[in-house]
Amino acid sequence: MLRIFNTLKGKVEEFKPLKEGEVSMYVCGPTVYNYIHIGNARPAIFFDTVRRYLEYRGYNVKYVQNFTDVDDKMIKRANEEGITLKEVADKYIAAYFEDTAKVNLKEDGMLRPKATEHIGEMIKLIKTLIEKDFAYEVQGDVYFSVKNYNEKYGELSKQNTEDLQSGSRVDVNDIKRSPLDFALWKAAKEGEPSWGSPWGKGRPGWHIECSAMSNKYLGPTFDIHGGGQDLIFPHHENEIAQSKCATGGDFARYWIHNGYINVKGEKMSKSLGNFFLLREVLEKYEGKVVRFFVLSSHYRKPIDFSEDELNQAKAAVERIENSLMRVLEKMDERDSIGDHLAVESLAKALEESKTKFVAAMDEDFNTSQGIGSIFELIKEMNKFMDGTSLDAEGREVLTAASDFIKEAIIEVLGVDIKVEKKVGNMTSELVDFILEIRQNARVERNWALSDKIRDRLGDMGVKIKDGKDKTTWSI
Ligand SMILES: [Zn+2]
């Protein structure tokens, strides 16, 4: 049974999708005015993992993540670079795909709508809100009236409107009726890109984008809405208010929010200037290491970003790869007398690891514990390979264990480890051929040639081990 911490309810609860076997999920995407930093990479990686796990559990997942390609920062960037809004968007969307492909996001079947391509849908929602008296127009701006929605506002962020009201600054120039009201539509200013609307030329507010796009692709009520915890207020609170009022649906049923990435205890953010771009980190560490690093903590906990942590992730990924490569090498060994008890014990460890992995992921996507259960199996697998020769039965269980680790790590967690023998087939065949010649030399007691071959291969990094009846090699 999958259980999810639902921010809306403030607790972990059983996940029951609207439609059996199907999950609809919307996650707020990046504002594409710059390269993404590692803090932005966390939700991208985590929610991709959520999708993968739901699919592993047999659900058909409809996953939508938008691009915000119009807002103040975008306009500022366009002016700075002397290019159009669309050119800014195209440039950083391309960069986004370039960077996130390296951390293995599953793009297949995913929808990535752009805000500027849904202005019509946004205008329609805003018109409905005005008609239902949940919004009003002032000087070409349109605002959502929090007072008219009132009773539920603050439900997600667990704040009441009085506290919010007293906490907000009242600007004398403000044309809003109440400080809590937020913009649905902004009248065009000089030099800004704009679209025609019933209220004159202008552009949409940020919050209405997500309401319009989620409604278009997932309907007025859908299963999961995700994003970073910094989006809870005001963005998600406002999405809920305007969507419920406009469509009459329940909007999102489960709200999932990931924690921050910290640097020396402080939240990584563009405004604090303590951020690391994902592409900078990827120059030093492979995507699989970055992804493993992100998933090795529970998603709701903060992660400390440091070289130390990344190096630990790198070592862990190598441990997994080395063990799986050893399995491949072990499979090359000839059948011998196995150890039935050792096989049984490995089979038991495999079942336990599977159960624990699913239990961990089922309990609010606990990737950190899930990874732990895989390492328990790796330990048992290494012990098995150290101590036992393979017979048919051992071969079968070892293959099953290795297959499960690959499925969990590569398919579910999306950590794209490489499990190949470190040399290509051709090289591998060549080494085997050279060893055959060496074997002939040994039969002829030509020790000089035999040693020469061994030493030269050694210089090239191929280590030879003469066994009782077989010579094996490794890189
Ligand atoms: Zn959003």
Automatic annotation (TrEMBL):
CDD domains: CysRS_core (cd00672). The gene is cysS. Residues 356-423 form the Cysteinyl-tRNA synthetase class Ia DALR domain. Keywords: Aminoacyl-tRNA synthetase, ATP-binding, Coiled coil, Cytoplasm, Ligase, Metal-binding, Nucleotide-binding, Protein biosynthesis, Zinc. A motif ('KMSKS' region) lies at residues 267-271. GO terms for biological process: cysteinyl-tRNA aminoacylation. Monomer. Binds 1 zinc ion per subunit. The keyword Metal-binding applies. ATP binds at K270. Zn(2+) binds at C28, C210, H235, E239. This is Cysteine--tRNA ligase. It is an enzyme of class 6 (ligase).
